[in-house]
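Researcher: We're teaching a course module on how sequence relates to structure. For the next exercise, students receive a sequence and then see the predicted structure as tokens, so they can try to spot secondary structure elements on their own. Here is the exercise chain.
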Amino acid sequence: MKIPDCARCLLYSHNPHLVCVVHPDGVDGDSCLDFRLDPNAEPAELWQPEGASYYNGELILQPQQRLTQQQQLELLDTHPMFTGKCPQCEHEFDRDYTARVHWDCPECGWMDDSI
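Model: And here is the predicted structure for the students to work with:
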């Protein structure tokens, strides 16, 4: 049985009837102990579709962004999660960010509508 590494192996025969010199019929399993990387082998193609990335060999589609880059930067500059202050009245929020889910201001009534 031929495995994906065969095409990059120095011992690969490039013959439709023989897999390689050491294992003419191929190997049993997912790997070969006799694999030797061919220095002249074509490198693996690193192509990926736009809007997706490979992580650990798995294609992951990136989620569609709701906000433009400008809106994201504005959110970083004004949201209490990042500044610790209400964007309307400058009320200081407690710094316990791990427990906080809503960022509504108790002073002026500003409401976080980002989620």
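Model: If you want an answer key for the exercise: The longest helix spans residues 69-78. The radius of gyration is 28 Å.
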